[in-house]
Write a sequence for this structure.
């Protein structure tokens, strides 16, 4: 079988099964008495075994086979689980992950230390690993011999003797006696099942009166590739032959009628060689490739499709505008239809790129388990909104930041069990991962119920690191103080440790989130915990933007950064400490001019000033513009190599009238003009 | 063209089987992801043949064979078993399954089993 074309699917489902293993094992660890999670553990290991054997990854198949056995034995009650075994199983899952990584990256079926784990697990379980084969209910057990094929060739050499008593009795009833030798294909893996099918078919036509080897040995597969039966029936030999040979993998059925005279049959069966080994070798042979039902698409092709849809959206907007001024018959309705189709296409293409956040969330219970036990803390993970979907590129990008935040929760936020008890909390801390949709963005929150952030420490650190003049520091609200942590180079971790690493800190998270147009913010609840909030765009290619005019040109501001638009009388703009501010519903909001920010100088303002209230650098800012044109979706085009130095713009888009508009990178613009705020 | 219902809890295995079956002019009428799904899809699609995995969540393959045979005594079901599951395969055949193939699949063997089962 040409397995290469299935490799991607294999890897994807293998990872899924490893996640399931982790999840089920975590559940099992919580209550070792309850064996229910073992069904899931067994199933996931079993599935992985089957898949890796199909792909020809023999080492991984061997490894997962061993795990499957262990889980089955715990489930069946022949192996008592303890914490050592659970830890070994966790390590095994890591080894499987390493297998998968190595297969993915180097196409090598290997993982370091996998043999060690097998040895350790085997040592843990005293009985031979292949004893129990079946599911939870005590089904007919199959002894090891049928798998390893260690049969005693002498048994099959005996042949059968049919006594005169039987022959005479059969003759009296008008029945014939047959000696049947059934030969099963050497490649057959389940000889016992074929033998069972033979006996079932024969039973419809008569009685089996003898067998060699004994019935029990045939049932258990303890024979080479043939066995003999004595059979009494009214049916002619040809009919019996047919009823046997319609069973698959029956090589032949030799039928001989026995008459009333003694006759011994001795067959020399030299096939001591085992069939099982051969079948595996045979199945691993390269076979012509098969066609699958679903199609795997390279992510680059998806990007390019998305790009084309983006172009279509632009063309659609242009067409809309052209059609609006024309009165051709049917044009309006055709354009409407065209609009609808493009909208649907855009939704479909966007949808293909979406993945549920559980894709990364589900890794955390396991990660937290390991990190918290290293840190000597008791921590539980709560996940909500795992089914919320987000662009896969965004999702991959935020995994690292989330990991960082979770590490911080464990290293700094959550207390030790004793500290928690002293503070009147439950011994076990909680880390919550949640996701929810908010218009065109997804909000991901990472929170804990730990001690929160020590604001006094933050203040001291800010002074020590000279992050801000003292007088300014004093004007900060608690919320603003907390968010100082995300300024590059800030870290309250006193020493380097395994869990949180060197305090490269929250600034990395913030930078990453902002890099693709997201917003990062923290909330502190002194003594009760803290929360990190990541507001992320649903997709990176087509966004909702507010179009504004400033200094004679049109600019696009991503809606994710806007809160509202207001018209403000210019006389109400106040100067406080050389800064322009407005009082918006009781809140002091600094005023900046977009035209000034982009280096075109402040334009003369009319009596009523148009302002866009934006959210940037964790605070509100009123951005003055000449006029607000409205909101529409825009397709983001990169600025390209030549213009990449243009700081303050994240890209460019083509508007309905064919003109070009720069997309304002609010965060960067304000950062480069920080002194003005 | 004969219609096949593929039952397996992993997409990977379903794809592999579909790939093998399509070479033999068989129409993949549907796919089911567990025993319960298999019973429902069988009733809905009335396939000529079913390939049935054994170990699956919710309702396993053997239970599904029993239910399907109750609904349609002429159902043609081919079990897909992993190594070492002789006892389970026998149980499935007692319940009415016609034949079995073993994972890892050998395409010629699978096609032969399908042919044979369809001719029963």
């Amino acid at each position: 079988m040409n397995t290469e074309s299935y490799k991607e699917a294999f890897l994807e489902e293998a990872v899924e099964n490893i996640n399931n293993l982790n999840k089920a094992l975590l559940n099992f660890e919580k209550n070792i008495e309850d064996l229910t999670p073992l069904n899931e553990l067994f199933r996931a290991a079993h599935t992985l075994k089957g898949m890796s054997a199909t792909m020809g990854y023999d080492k991984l198949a061997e490894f997962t086979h061993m795990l499957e056995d262990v889980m089955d034995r715990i489930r069946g009650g022949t192996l008592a689980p303890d914490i050592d075994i659970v830890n070994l199983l966790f390590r095994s899952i890591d080894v499987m992950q390493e297998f998968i990584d190595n297969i993915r990256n180097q196409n090598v079926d290997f993982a370091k230390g996998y043999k060690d784990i097998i040895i350790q697990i085997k040592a843990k379980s005293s009985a031979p690993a292949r004893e129990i084969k079946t599911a939870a209910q005590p089904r007919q057990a199959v002894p090891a011999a049928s798998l390893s094929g260690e049969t005693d060739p002498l048994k099959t050499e005996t042949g059968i003797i049919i006594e005169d008593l039987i022959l005479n009795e059969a003759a009296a009833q008008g029945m014939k006696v047959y000696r049947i030798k059934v030969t099963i294909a050497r490649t057959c893996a389940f000889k016992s099942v074929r033998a069972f099918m033979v006996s079932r078919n024969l039973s419809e036509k008569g009685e089996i009166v003898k067998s060699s080897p004994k019935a029990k040995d045939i049932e258990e597969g303890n024979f080479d590739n043939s066995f003999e039966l004595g059979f009494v029936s009214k049916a002619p030999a040809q009919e019996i032959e047919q009823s046997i040979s319609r069973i698959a993998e029956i090589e032949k059925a030799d039928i001989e009628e026995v008459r009333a005279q003694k006759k011994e049959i001795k067959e020399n069966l030299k096939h001591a060689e085992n069939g099982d080994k051969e079948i595996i070798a045979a199945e691993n042979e390269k076979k012509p490739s098969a066609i699958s039902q679903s199609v795997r698409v390279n992510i680059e092709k998806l990007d390019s499709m998305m790009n084309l849809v983006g172009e279509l959206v632009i063309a659609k907007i242009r067409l809309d505008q052209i059609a609006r001024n024309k009165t051709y018959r049917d044009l309006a309705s055709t354009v409407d239809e065209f609009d609808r189709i493009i909208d649907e296409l855009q939704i479909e293409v966007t949808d293909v790129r979406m993945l549920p956040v559980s894709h990364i969330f589900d890794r955390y219970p396991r990660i937290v388990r390991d990190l918290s036990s290293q840190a000597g803390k008791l921590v539980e993970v709560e996940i909500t909104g795992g089914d919320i979907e987000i662009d896969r590129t965004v999702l991959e990008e935020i995994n690292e930041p989330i990991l960082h935040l979770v590490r911080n929760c464990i290293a700094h936020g959550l207390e030790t069990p004793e500290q928690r008890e002293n503070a009147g909390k439950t011994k076990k801390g909680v880390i919550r991962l949640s996701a929810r949709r908010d218009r065109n963005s997804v909000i991901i929150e990472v929170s804990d119920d730990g001690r929160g952030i020590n604001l006094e420490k933050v203040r001291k650190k800010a002074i020590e690191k000279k992050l801000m003049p003292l007088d300014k520091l004093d004007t900060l609200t608690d919320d603003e103080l907390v968010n100082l942590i995300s300024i590059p180079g800030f870290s309250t971790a006193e020493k380097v440790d395994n869990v949180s690493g060197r305090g490269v800190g929250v600034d990395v998270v913030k930078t990453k989130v902002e890099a693709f147009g997201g917003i990062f913010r923290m909330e502190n609840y002194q003594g009760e915990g803290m929360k990190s909030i990541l507001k992320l765009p649903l997709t990176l290619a087509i966004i909702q933007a507010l179009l504004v005019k400033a200094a004679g040109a049109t600019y696009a501001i991503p809606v994710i950064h806007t809160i509202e638009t207001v018209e403000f009388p210019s006389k109400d703009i106040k100067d406080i400490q050389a800064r322009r501010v407005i009082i918006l519903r009781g809140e002091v909001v600094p005023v900046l001019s977009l035209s000034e920010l982009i280096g075109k100088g402040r334009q003369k303002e009319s009596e009523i000033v148009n302002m866009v209230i934006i959210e940037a650098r964790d605070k509100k800012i009123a951005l003055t513009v000449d006029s607000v044109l409205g909101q529409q979706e825009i397709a983001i085009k990169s600025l390209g190599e030549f213009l990449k130095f243009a700081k303050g713009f994240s890209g460019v888009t083509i508007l309905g009238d064919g003109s070009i508009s720069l997309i304002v990178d609010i965060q960067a613009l304000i950062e480069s003009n920080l002194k003005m705020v | 063209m004969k219609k096949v219902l593929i039952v397996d809890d992993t997409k990977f295995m379903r794809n592999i089987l579909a790939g093998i079956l399509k070479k033999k002019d068989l129409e993949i009428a549907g796919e089911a992801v567990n025993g319960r799904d298999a019973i429902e899809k069988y009733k809905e699609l009335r396939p000529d043949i079913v390939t049935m995995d054994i170990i699956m969540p919710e309702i396993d393959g053997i239970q599904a064979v029993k239910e399907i045979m109750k609904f349609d005594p002429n159902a043609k079901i081919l079990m897909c078993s992993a190594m070492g599951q002789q006892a389970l395969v026998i149980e499935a055949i007692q319940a009415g399954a016609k034949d079995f193939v073993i994972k890892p699949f050998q395409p010629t063997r699978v096609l032969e089993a399908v042919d044979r089962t369809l001719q029963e």
Chain A is about 40% helix and 25% strand. Chain A touches chain B through 53 residues (CB under 8 Å). Confidence is low (pLDDT under 50) at residues 127-158, 262-293, 494-503 of chain A.
